[in-house]
Amino acid sequence: xxxxxxxxxxxxxxxxxxxxEPITAVAAVHSVGTDRNCxxxxxxxxxxxxxxxxxxxxxxxxxxxxxxxxTLFKVVDTDVVVQFEEQRMxxxxxxxKSPCLDDLxxxxxxxxxxxxxxxxxxxxxxxxxxxxxxxxxxxxxINYESQWYVPLINxxxxxxxxxxxxxxxxxxxxxVEFSHTPKGRMKKFNKxxxxxxxxxxxxxYPNLCNPTDYSVLF
Length: 218
Prior knowledge:
Distance between the termini: 35 Å
Oligomer: single chain
Order of helices and strands: EEHHHHEEEEEH
Largest sheet: 7 strands, mixed
Helix content: 25-40%
Strand order of the largest sheet: 1-2-6-5-3-4-7
Shape: globular
Strand content: 15-25%
């Protein structure tokens, strides 16, 4: 599968899906394969510079998940639901099925996967979502959502400015590449909000989380 890269801010529609100010802070948006493994492919495009290594990304994430599945990545619910969600997550990360158009439970989950990616690769993750709904009146309603996910366990200070940035629009994940200054610094832009579970997890598992709260860097 090929990667389609969009760089024209004025002409390429995909830039309209990003709530980034100024939009010139974005250098490019990369559309990876459309087999519904696109979330893992987008991560792979960043981490390994190759979307084809999406199964390696899954294997990396599975190692982290199995280590912390009873703590940081445990669903807050009844025992039955916890066990069900655990098995579903393991199945998701073990699957190498492509395409997997008919099984949404194998897709990259915006609920748990961004934080898992952050702690697997010890880098922040930015998750952008674009949702378009058509009301009964025929009016189009557009919602933009965005969140930061900061590693809870460990992160090198130098990696704090190297976020793995994903965009979800119309059930497809894109990889977002930010612009940099001549000195190599990422250009400034409006930062998303910190994900709501960050502080809860730090409070619940102080012995697992790094004493340094990396969210203060953002």
